[in-house]
Design a protein that fits this description.
single chain, mainly alpha, 5 helices
């Protein structure tokens, strides 16, 4: 059975490495990523695919948000 829900990224329950990566972002940054993903996946994506993007493609997400390693060093 397939159950689809609509929720914001700030309320999504990430797991494994994606959980730690998502914690690095502010609510505003999560909202920006959400808008980008909505454009990229107009029909939506499943939970595993979303989690994998945050876990394995987090460098891409940081590029979308213009986050550099220098930004991380300042914190």
């Amino acid at each position: 059975m397939k159950i689809t829900t609509e929720q914001s990224l700030s309320n999504f329950n990430f797991w494994s490495g994606a959980k730690e990566n998502a914690k690095e972002l502010t609510i505003e940054q999560l909202n920006q990523v959400e808008w980008i993903l909505e454009d990229m996946y107009p029909d939506g994506i499943d939970e595993t695919q979303l989690n994998d993007i945050f876990w394995f493609d987090f460098e891409t997400i940081k590029e979308w948000l213009n986050i550099t390693d220098e930004d991380e060093d300042e914190e």
